[in-house]
Amino acid sequence: MNKKNTIIVAGCAFLLGYFLKQQQNERQRIKPEKALKVVKECFQKKYEVSGSWIYMKSEPLQKNGLEYEVYHGGITKYINSEYVPYEFYVDAYTGTVIDMFPQHPNQVHTTA
């Protein structure tokens, strides 16, 4: 093999390794703390957030015929003089909120 072919092969091997590493990085889960931070920051733009939590272990979720790996968490928003707790599922790979719903629809805490 001559010097030119060696350089071409080495360059292709480098590019292949780079693209494989990029694919692997894209499929790594984000840390649950980061997922919670993203959700919290998003909701703090519109509401006062008084509390939040997240499970540290991801779990599978089926929604609209699709399968996700998610973190399950909760956030308490202060809306119209009331503390309203919500639960959410956030994609463990992207940090995108998949679902959000009131934690206890019949239970709303008001301020004294």
Explain this structure.
- There is one protein chain.
- The protein is an alpha+beta fold.
- The chain has two domains: 28 residues; 80 residues, Nuclear Transport Factor 2, Chain: A.
- Helices cover 33% and strands 39% of the residues.
- Strand 2 and strand 3 form a beta hairpin.
- It is elongated.
List the helices and strands and how they pair.
Elements: H1 3-26, H2 32-44, E1 48-54, E2 59-63, E3 66-79, E4 82-91, E5 97-102, E6 109-110
CATH topology value of the largest domain: Nuclear Transport Factor 2, Chain: A
Order of helix and strand elements from N to C terminus: HHEEEEEE
Total domains: 2
Number of strands: 6
Span from first to last CA? 82 Å
The quaternary structure here is single chain
Q: What percent of residues are in strands?
A: 35-45%
Shape: elongated
Helical/strand content category: alpha+beta
Mean pLDDT: 81
Low-confidence spans = 107-112
Q: Report the CATH architecture of the largest domain.
A: Roll
Query: How many helical elements?
Result: 2
Helix content: 25-40%
Biggest pleated-sheet summary = 6 strands, antiparallel
The radius of gyration over CA amounts to 22 Å
**Name of the CATH class of the largest domain:** Alpha Beta
